[in-house]
Amino acid sequence: MVKTHIPGFPRIGAQRELKFALEDYWHGKSSRNQLVDTAKTLRMQNWNIQAQSGMDFVTVNDFSLYDQVLDHSVLLGSTPERFNDGSCDSFDNYFRMARGRAPSGEPTRACEMTKWFDTNYHYLVPELSPNQRFILNPEKLLAEIAEAQQLGHQVKPVILGPVTYLWLAKCANEEFDRLSLLPALLDSYQGLLKLLARKNIDWVQIDEPALVMELDTRWQEAYREAYQTLSTCGADLKLLLTTYFGALDKNFNLTNYLPVDGFHLDAVRGGDEFIRFSEQLRSDQVLSVGAIDGRNIWKADITSLKEKLATVAQQLGDNFWLSSSCSLLHVPVDLAQESGFDPELYSWLAFAHQKLSEISLLKSTLLNLSPQADTAEQLAANLRDVTARTQSQRVHRIEVKSRVHTLTPEDGERGLAYAERAIQQQNKLQLPAFPTTTIGSFPQTSDIRSARARYRRGELDSSAYNAIMQAEIRDCIERQERYGLDMLVHGEPERNDMVEYFGEQLEGYTTSQLGWVQSYGSRCVKPPIIYGDILRKEAMTVGWSRYAQSLSNKPVKGMLTGPVTMLQWAFVRDDQPRSETCLQIALALRDEVVDLEQAGIAAIQIDEPAIREGLPLKRSEWDFYLQWAVYAFRVSASGVQPDTQIHTHMCYAEFNDIIQAIADMDADVITIETSRSNMELLEVFTNFDYPNEIGPGVYDIHSPNTPTVEQILSLIDKAATQIPVERLWINPDCGLKTRGWDEVATSLINMVAAAKILREQSLAA
Ligand SMILES: Nc1nc2c(c(=O)[nH]1)N[C@@H](CNc1ccc(C(=O)N[C@@H](CCC(=O)N[C@@H](CCC(=O)N[C@@H](CCC(=O)O)C(=O)O)C(=O)O)C(=O)O)cc1)CN2
Ligand code: MET
Ligand SMILES: [Zn+2]
């Protein structure tokens, strides 16, 4: 009989219960027991919904209080040395690793955080040392297994595979070869599997998403060694080797030959590869087909999936399993709780709960299990909804499509080269040497958020809400004047989230009330949904920018989110290429940029923090992506006169791979995050001879610590050895929305003081 399961479920809770429980605990507003209880309730609910939706296994150990990769480091006992100071117990130590501080224990430098493959989810990077030892610490895993079993569930625990774990890890000594740790790591995994075998478990899901990456022969060999070792370790257990986020491509044969009991393949991004894979399967191996999209929110077309899967299902019989493409962590929890959509849009969507039902419906449909009215009716309803979406009037706008199709290369050109633009801009802006600025957002205080919540609930009307936001902008401008910054911003108080804010205003996008997806730890985002052709009905930011500029004689930067980030951080329509959607957004932004210029805004920043993360996982697809992504940015930026200064901003990414593309974007000024890496990230700009102006971040905004003038000076000194001083800007790493005013004030005052010292020094020289 076909088995159904999912690789993982969201843990934040439909109402973000985990977020609030965590933050209350961290801020001393609730006890540890309250947090533990909330976590337990969430796990129970998650398993119940899986069981009720007909899953044959519930997934265990996908739950985490902060991050599943950090949990895995704790499980393997491979947490960094600096946390072994005995300053607190293991419960709080976990949060110290995650965020540098906890209710008890000494504050320390947290583990580094980075993007999980090409998602907007951040994991905590394992830090390994050359003589790393692994000492199993299976308490959490075993407790959660026991918890689910006591509730009467069939349990399938999930663990991260050894090779992907090493792939994600880093070592302070970059020369060190992480793969040399594999034998020791495998010893640990063998011990773990033996432990699990005693727990009345049939299957263990072992995640190896690194198998969809392009691997050199050493990493391929690591896979052979790892699974050879694990398959002969004598644990009476079956391993489901789980891959997702793409096709296996060149690792197809490698994977196929690995001695495991079953495989899970991503049949959404991996296309039809699973069919060929099924033909090579041994008769005692199972294939779990990830047919329901775990990365997007569209209702699945069950009828066409049935066609696609029928032959394989029939041939494999009991060895055919059904699943979602990847963990459902990346989609919101439950559409049924959502009241914000109109009925037509609602009928097009499926969140995590609904995806479980889709897996079940697909199974019954494939097996003709219950030819009763029930399945037939559901199938008919599904077909009606997915067909309606393809035919809906609101998806297509001829004028938008034709504007994209008549774009020419000239639409991506500024008219004059940077060097000439720079002269005109300097004439207009009259900035001092080492100009100081910030990245856009200022503290999103609870006053701002609660005003927005009251406005949403209808307790404030729009004029009252606007008045409050204007007062915030006024305060923000006055503070920047007091701190002595040279180029100001309005502070973005009116934005819940940069992407969501523009998504709310553009036609073709819709936003949800409860569509939260975990971004890191307790922080969540509500990705807007792009369902149709994108049109700007009216100016989106001009009123706020004009108001802000009216309060100061210094230039106030206009502030927009770029086309690639607006695409990358949204749920995107699947009926046309991403590049096409991106150009539609670029044109809407281009009109906004032009309107800002007309309103007297002399510098406009178009943020592109997600451009690196949009890079396809496979190198062979990079050029094509970078080509349309850079063009889309240029289209958005190129409607203005040469004397209007275009800024862009990028953060928390390795720029090495895309430095040429960054230069090709041809922004007049780029601000980037560099302070945590002590300006190392800047090296790539120097080595490349980046031609335009750069503001390397001199203030780490992810830390509550305020930088001193000396620290800032030393960072700028370092930057000045790499970038000609005429092209150097002084600014923080990123926006300040998650910080408090006290720290921001001190830090910015110090930043301006550092810039002034440098100006005096260069005058004296
Ligand atoms: N989309 C996106 N992706 C991104 C980033 C980003 O900025 N945006 N940055 C990086 C990730 N960094 C992040 C940094 C901060 C937060 C963050 O702070 N998220 C907030 C939610 C932000 C938000 O939408 N806030 C709403 C408020 C939502 C809310 O909880 N409202 C309460 C009321 C709150 C009150 O009364 O004070 C309610 O409705 O009950 C608003 O301002 O309107 C959170 O989890 O807490 C998320 C990601 C990479 N990916
Ligand atoms: C994640 S990049 C953020 C850029 C935005 N302008 C801000 O300052 O918040
Ligand atoms: Zn940023």
Summarize the helices and strands and which ones pair or pack:
Blueprint: E1 3-4, H1 17-26, H2 32-52, E2 58-60, H3 68-76, H4 90-99, E3 113-115, E4 122-124, E5 127-128, H5 139-150, E6 155-160, H6 162-168, E7 170-171, H7 182-197, E8 203-207, H8 217-231, E9 238-242, H9 252-257, E10 262-266, H10 273-279, E11 286-292, H11 302-316, E12 320-324, H12 343-346, H13 352-367, H14 373-391, H15 398-405, H16 418-429, H17 446-456, H18 462-483, H19 498-505, E13 506-510, E14 517-520, E15 523-525, E16 529-536, H20 542-550, E17 558-561, H21 563-568, H22 578-598, E18 603-607, H23 622-637, E19 645-650, H24 659-665, E20 669-672, H25 683-688, E21 693-696, H26 709-720, H27 741-764
Helix pairs in contact: 1-2, 7-8, 11-13, 15-22, 17-18, 22-23, 23-24, 26-27
The protein binds the ligand Nc1nc2c(c(=O)[nH]1)N[C@@H](CNc1ccc(C(=O)N[C@@H](CCC(=O)N[C@@H](CCC(=O)N[C@@H](CCC(=O)O)C(=O)O)C(=O)O)C(=O)O)cc1)CN2, methionine (MET) and zinc ion (ZN).
Domain Cobalamin-independent methionine synthase MetE N-terminal: 4-315
Cofactor: Zn(2+)
InterPro entries: Cbl-indep_Met_Synth_N (IPR013215), Cobalamin-indep_Met_synthase (IPR006276), Met_Synth_C/arc (IPR002629), UROD/MetE-like_sf (IPR038071)
Structure description:
The strands form six sheets. An eight-stranded parallel sheet has the order 1-12-11-10-9-8-6-2. Strands 17-18-19-20-21 form a five-stranded parallel sheet. A two-stranded antiparallel ribbon has the order 3-4. The radius of gyration is 27 Å and the shape is globular. The protein has 27 helices and 21 strands. Helix 9 (252-257) links the parallel strand 9 and strand 10 (262-266). The protein starts with a strand and ends with a helix. Helix 17 (446-456) runs antiparallel to helix 18 (462-483), helix 22 packs parallel to helix 23 (622-637) and helix 26 (709-720) packs across helix 27. It is an alpha/beta fold and 765 residues long. Among the domains are: 57-260, TIM Barrel, CATH 3.20.20.210; 430-447 and 484-764, Alpha-Beta Barrel (TIM Barrel), CATH 3.20.20. The chain binds ligand 39S, methionine and zinc ion. Ligand 39S binds next to helix 17, helix 19 and strand 15.
